[in-house]
Amino acid sequence: MVSHSRPPSRLDVAWDRGFRFLTWFMAWATIALVLFIVYKVTESAFPALQRYGFSFMTTSHWDSNREKFGVLPEIWGTLYSSGLALLFATIFGVGVAIFVSEDFVAPAWRTLLKNVVELLAAIPSVVYGLWGIYVVIPLIRPMADWLHNNLGDFPLFGTPFAGPGMLPAAIVLAIMVLPTIAAVSRDALVNVPPRLREGAIGLGATRWEAIFKIVLPAASTGIFGAIVLGFGRALGETMALAMLVGNSGVISVSVLSPANTLSALLANHFPEAQGIEVGALMYAALVLMGITLLVNVIGELILWRASAGMKGAH
Amino acid sequence: MTKMPQATSLAIPMPEPRLHRSMTSFRTLFSMLMSILTGLIAIFAFVPLLSVLFMLIWRGIARLNLAIFTELPPAAGMTGGGFGNAIMGTIVMVGVAALIAVPFGTLAAVQMSEFGRNSSTSSVVRFCAKVLTGLPSILAGVFAYATIVLLMGTFSAVAGGIALSILMIPIVMLTAEEALRQVPMKVREAALGMGATRTQMVWKVVLPTALPGMLTGVMLAVARAAGETAPLLFTALFNQYWFDGNLAQPTASLAVLIYNFSSVPFKNQVELAWCASLVLVMLVLAVNLIGQRITRSSR
């Protein structure tokens, strides 16, 4: 009788060792890559870090001729545009998530809507930028003019609509983070044990009493994590903002005013930067990295806690 | 001595249970109103996608002809032209990125799922991969600029490819790990029981089983990288001329072409930007569809 099984030859064992070392090395290389990115950006920013110190983040000049740099308007613009976008995206994202996780329509329609939202995520951001310039800006111009003329005393609409600016940028940004918020919130809603909802309905709650009082509170940690992750996406998004935000370093609460963000600043100034301006841009990149890493880590931790909290419920 | 509280509460007569809810009660109306609102929100979510697709087809298809693929981008104010070099540049740079990211991501995923499962290193690696997923794409460009562009002294396809690979690695890695974890434990035990080394088990049993899922991840990563602009702006820059096989020179890409042409005052260039967007979206969607097909056919 022929046996097909044999002990591993010496070559097999050597190949086994080598391959396992290789995979081990690649796993550690991932950690090294993250650390190296942080190190390299910090190192490149160091000359500017030394020269401008903390005042870089509290002043608002960007003048490469006089070598004066500050990113306060960009930090403001980044946070403001992301915040506005998040406001729109949360309403629509959580709405869509509720719609596809509850049984409002037949499963076929739910799958269709889910695919549509996924398609939204697949469209490149530069295409959204182009669409924003030629569709969103002309579309909102009459409304924006009306808002300024009639409610101009209200600081939110205090400046005339200049075309590219905070509002069109935030609208397009909202469409871009909507898939993240919708998908992660949907996961959170689907993970709510069905028993809870059945219990509520069984006690006579209407559909929306069950959603508002039982399902949403149970999924709230996951939805909150989705919103924080969406915020992280919005903070780092570049192209749509570089094309739509107006690239002007002013600090204004008016949504009709042009503004600038950290990522748009990098996109516009890096290709032609020289000397200390490269250092200043690296510093700006460092600030952006710090903000996004912080937000993303908080989001992941919240999601991790949400899934840990749901473990016992199933 | 007062009565026990429990006794009092029991003494309260229970109202007759109402099994029917009036259609005009506030609770019913509120519920219906909310259902309609959610439905409207869901319908409204279709609008941007429909509008983007409509604009792409309406404004992009006008210029879609053979010249697009065979001619170079026109200079300012010139008519005609195409963006064949940008299509080629995008393919080259995504190829370079995939050559780096696919082995890197797959091997790290094998370590996480096969050799170091449940180890604390794997948790840290997974956490790092998630951090990389959340890294703004422009920072990948900043990193490639600081390491490759400054080192080589020139903008290049290599720098662009490396910047893109940083965005692809976590996608490939996390989907590959997910796919590897779906392989039943019994299959591994059977292979080991037959006397296979752990590497033989991975190569001959686990990887072939998990291949469709892993390919889907690769496709997703390729689609994502093909559409990225921010990491290429100051790593690959742009090039007016054809890609001639030299990876160490500035290289054109579809995404950067769209960005450059989006805000110029020339009608011809804007038309080309729309047409390039149409080509890019079709490319990205095609790669996405192939990825989904692979998953579906394996089930």
UniProtKB/TrEMBL annotation, chain A:
Domain of life, per UniProt, equals Bacteria
Main location (coarse class): membrane
Q: How does it sit in the membrane?
A: Multi-pass membrane protein
Cellular component (GO) terms are: plasma membrane
Q: Where are the transmembrane segments?
A: 21-39, 79-100, 112-137, 166-189, 210-232, 280-304
* Entry keywords, A to Z: Cell membrane, Membrane, Phosphate transport, Transmembrane, Transmembrane helix, Transport
GO terms for biological process, alphabetical? phosphate ion transport
Question: Acyltransferase as a keyword?
Answer: no
Annotated localization: Cell membrane
Provide the family line.
Belongs to the binding-protein-dependent transport system permease family. CysTW subfamily.
Its biological purpose is as follows:
Part of the binding-protein-dependent transport system for phosphate; probably responsible for the translocation of the substrate across the membrane.
Q: What is this protein called?
A: Phosphate transport system permease protein
From TrEMBL, chain B:
Q: Per its UniProt record, what InterPro entries does this chain match?
A: MetI-like, MetI-like_sf, Phosphate_PstA, Phosphate_transprt_permease
Q: What terms describe the molecular function in GO for this protein?
A: phosphate transmembrane transporter activity
List the coiled-coil residues. Answer: none
This protein's GO cellular component annotations are:
plasma membrane
Enumerate the spans annotated as ABC transmembrane type-1 domain: 87-291
Q: What Pfam family is a match for this entry?
A: BPD_transp_1
Q: How does it sit in the membrane?
A: Multi-pass membrane protein
TM region positions:
28-58, 86-110, 131-152, 158-180, 201-223, 271-291
List localization entries.
Answer: Cell membrane
Q: What keyword terms does UniProt attach to this protein?
A: Cell membrane, Membrane, Phosphate transport, Transmembrane, Transmembrane helix, Transport
**CDD domains from the entry?**
TM_PBP2
Q: Output the SUPFAM superfamilies linked to this UniProt entry.
A: MetI-like
Q: Where mainly located?
A: membrane
Query: What is one process in the GO biological process aspect for this record?
Result: phosphate ion transmembrane transport
Q: Which PANTHER family match?
A: PHOSPHATE TRANSPORT SYSTEM PERMEASE PROTEIN PSTA
The entry sums up its family as follows:
Belongs to the binding-protein-dependent transport system permease family. CysTW subfamily.
Name the UniProt record assigns to this protein: Phosphate transport system permease protein PstA
